[in-house]
Structures are given as structure tokens and as C-alpha cells.
């Protein structure tokens, strides 16, 4: 087990100028790595849902204002650009996806462990620092997991894959508020804080164990050369231009910034909205309402993924983005059950927006895929910028009126939905990937593999780093930018 071959097969460094055939994986070949990575989506969904609940919990137990409580979101999402454009991006480009998965899980576990003494000493600032470390870990995971899900398997189904995987993120956001309603709000303050410690200890143990599973697993790596091949096969050709000219990518990153900011702001102040606008609603009941809205969010992702099998993903995205605007506007003036119903509908239609922006924004990037994914994930910085704006508006005019803030950012994100549907330079690249048969030609791959005498095609045809280094005919020179 501990032979040199064992360590070689689990090497974390993969040359980016060599093709590994990972960009041609069939549905069957991609099933195991996708299942393993999907667990990560549940993890950060749980962490994100827990954060929304802790936002209100700390307002109660530590006596802080809504604006100051948004420091949790600022610390959490403010860490994402540092990871996606900094340390995680560097590891991804110089090592590979599996290395980033392990690194992100390590940071996540470290932040969870350090959170325990901060909670014991009732230090909100210390807890924000720990959340910042956790945010770096989750930002690292998102930098790798989102593009990995998108490109691991037939590109024709990338939007469906990422939405199904992100649906487990939605399940995590449901579990966390339900847990919070029973663990944080039904005990006295001291007991509740002690319960938070146990939750973070359990999180740390689980993520360290999962990091070990990723190290022991041999999953296909996807290199720049693989993505250049995929872009060439679809005739998108977008990666032929320098990185700084990839305007579609930067538009997607802008949309991600605006959309994520609006989503995080609504979820972060959902409990405040419920307790202020609906009579006889306390924080515990508000947390249950939040869990219900997050359940609608998860259902929306499964439903949206199902729709994408019959309707082009760009059209489904435009519909859902439009509905976010339509239903968030009445929430500003409506109160009671009517206002809550509007937010339920908003969160249902938010469901597919985040993952679909990632999938559409990465279309045609080719050799720029790893670098480009970092920019789109960096758009999550909106989750650090918009909640403080909404918190300030809520302190000044009430949480109901503050819904005007996410509405404005939804409108800004909507510009990308319009572009991918009505601007030909956007639409042509997106549609080129929707019609390709890369990853669907298993029989043809078996025939080609037999002719070459190789083992890359056919039933067990995914090569790892060891095989790729010996597969000389498939080496592609891919100049890095």
C-alpha cells in the first residue's frame, strides 16, 4: 500500500500542458468523481445556512446591531477573492484540482476548530476571524469544485450537472436553519453558545476525514490542454484570444458579484424580515421559515435542472433571473404572510442562478478555464459588500424597506441573462457547447483506443497523472498566460 507506486498515483501535481483525456469523460466514467465532489457542495451549503442563522443568534446573545452582525457575511464572503484569485488559484494552476480540494478542507477544519475558543470567550471579532479562515477554505473549494463539476463529463450537460450538484448545497442550507432553530433559539444564551461549539467541532472532524478521502482517491485531473482540446472540438475558439480580452468572462463575474450579493443579503436578513413584518413571529419561528424558503431553493435547483433537459439553459436562466426581480419588488411594501410569500418565491427562483452563471461564464475559455473560474468565484465578494448596505438600510428604515437594495443588484445581474440570450457573441459560444458530442462518443473512443493500442479510450479510459506523462502522442503545447 505504501509503495512508490501508491504515492505516485496520488501525486498532487499534474502538468497543465499534457492531455489526460479527462475532458472526454463519459457519464459513466465521471460518476464517482462527481459524487465525491458533490459532498463539498453540501458542506458549504450547510456552512452558509448556519451563517444566516448565527447572524440573528449573535444579535440576540451579544446585543449587536444588524449592520455589525453583517460582519459575519463580510468576513465569510470577503475571503473568497483572496482564495479564488490568490492562494487557491495558484495551487490550482500549479498542482491540480485534488490539491485544492484538500487545501480547502484543511482551512475549513482549521477555522472550525479555532471558532470554539472564540465562542467560549464571547468574542464576536474573534469569531469573525475564524469565519474568515472558513471562508478561505470554502472559497478554495468553490474555486475548484464549480469548474470541476462543469468540465468533468460531457460538456453538453454541464449546466445540468452543476445545478444538480448545487442542489445538495441547497439541502445543506435547509438542514442548518432547522438545526439552528432547535439548538440556538430554544435554550438560554450560555447553553446555546455551548451548542455552537459542538457543532463546529463536529464540522472540523468531518472535513478532516473528508480531506483524507480525497487524498486516497484517484480522480481524473483536468488540465489546460484538456480544456483547449474541448474548446477546439466545439469550435468555440474563444480561448485563442489573450485572457484580458475575455469580456464575456468578466461580465459573468460582474453578474455573479451582483447576484450573490442580493442572494446573501436576503438570506442573511430573512429572519429579521420575518420577525419585523409578520405578527407573533419570534426568532425560532423565523428560523423555521428560513429553512422552508431554503427548501424551496433546493427544489428550484432540481426543478431547474430538469427544465434544462428540454429548454436551453440560457433561457431557463433568463426566466429565473427575471422572476427574482418580479417577486422581490413587492416584498418591499408587503407585510405579513404576503411579504414572506414573495421572499419564498424569490428564493425559489434564485436557485439556479449562481451555478448557471458559472457554467455559462466558463463556456469556451479553453486553456483559460482554471484562471477564469477564479474570477467568477471571486464574484462571490458581492456577499460581503451588499449585506452591510442592506443592514444600514434596515437599521434606518426597517428590514422591509431594505429589500430595495437586493432588488437593485438583481437588475444589474439581469444584464448578463439578457446578453447570453440576445447578444450573438455570447449566444454563439454558449450554444456551441450545447450541441457538441464530446464525451458522448464512447464507442468511437473505444475504436480509436484499440487502433492506437492505448488504454485511454474504452471502459477504463481515464488516465491519471502517471499515465498522462507516458502518453506522448497526446501531449499538447499550451502556452500559459
TrEMBL record:
Residues 441-481 are annotated as: Disordered. Keywords: Cell membrane, Membrane, Transmembrane, Transmembrane helix. Its main location: membrane. InterPro entries: MFS, MFS_trans_sf, MFS_TsgA-like. GO terms for cellular component: plasma membrane. It is found in: Cell inner membrane. This is Major facilitator superfamily (MFS) profile domain-containing protein. GO terms for molecular function: transmembrane transporter activity. The chain crosses the membrane at residues 31-51, 71-92, 99-116, 162-185, 197-219, 316-333, 339-362, 374-394, 400-419. Gene3D superfamilies: MFS general substrate transporter like domains. It is a multi-pass membrane protein. It comes from the Eukaryota. The keyword tRNA processing does not apply. Residues 441-454, 470-481 have a biased composition (Basic and acidic residues). It comes from Thermothelomyces thermophilus (strain ATCC 42464 / BCRC 31852 / DSM 1799).
